């Protein structure tokens, strides 16, 4: 991890603690429990300074607030940390972008902070309360249209595809377009061996890192296969571990602790 490498894509800041959703497939279950030390009240975060140094050294262009077991907007010092990192990482050769990967539950309530990121990605598996409940453990579906209306930044939707929602894709795309969404990523769950066919009758417009990209009703739709993806990230885990694998569950640093 030493030296400049222009191929680094992201630096993820990972939060752990109680979540406001209860997804059966939560990524936090895939990584060692000792790593998920709660940090929702902590400022600065464990190993934060070293993480910032690595971002500078590796010239990483984007910092992402996200979580292992919780939503990043539940972090008590979200705005304070965001402003500090913006200040610390300004003045480099090229500007660093900041984004939030959230379930969107608190987006409207915290819209002022939400709009201080450069862009947002909302995990959103369905507009149907029945399907949403099966996938996120609650019937309360965030109001995506209202979030897009109040947002001053680009909002992308990330949709996990599994047995509960893969047959609902066409309706999902219609409702997302109505809500004002412009970009959607359909994701396979990490390690998912089953195939849930979607968009098979649609023409692929292009490929992004081996993943097919479609243009449907004005939406840019990518079908992202985690296991084939070639992104590179460093990750500040809640316990202070700095990992170097985009696939969190395959972080080599876990075995060196
Ligand atoms: S919203 Fe994210 S962090 Fe919360 S339970 Fe679901 S997958 Fe886990």
Element pattern in H and E = EHEHEHEHHEHEEEEEE
Assembly type of the shown chains?
single chain
Let me know the number of strands. 11
Q: Roughly how many Å apart are the termini?
A: 17 Å
Could you walk me through the main structural features you see in this protein, from its secondary elements to its overall organization?
- With 257 residues, this protein is of the alpha/beta class.
- The protein has a single domain, classed as TIM Barrel (Alpha-Beta Barrel).
- Helices cover 20% and strands 22% of the residues.
- It has six helices and eleven strands.
- Strands 7-8-9-6-5-4-3-2-1-10-11 form an eleven-stranded mixed sheet.
- The model has no long low-confidence stretch (mean pLDDT 92).
- Bound molecules: iron/sulfur cluster.
- Iron/sulfur cluster (SF4) binds next to loops.
Short summary:
By secondary structure, the protein is of the alpha/beta class. The protein contains 6 helices and 11 strands.
What distinguishing features does this structure have?
alpha/beta; binds iron/sulfur cluster; single chain; 11 strands; 11-stranded mixed sheet; 257 residues; 20% helix; TIM Barrel; 6 helices; globular
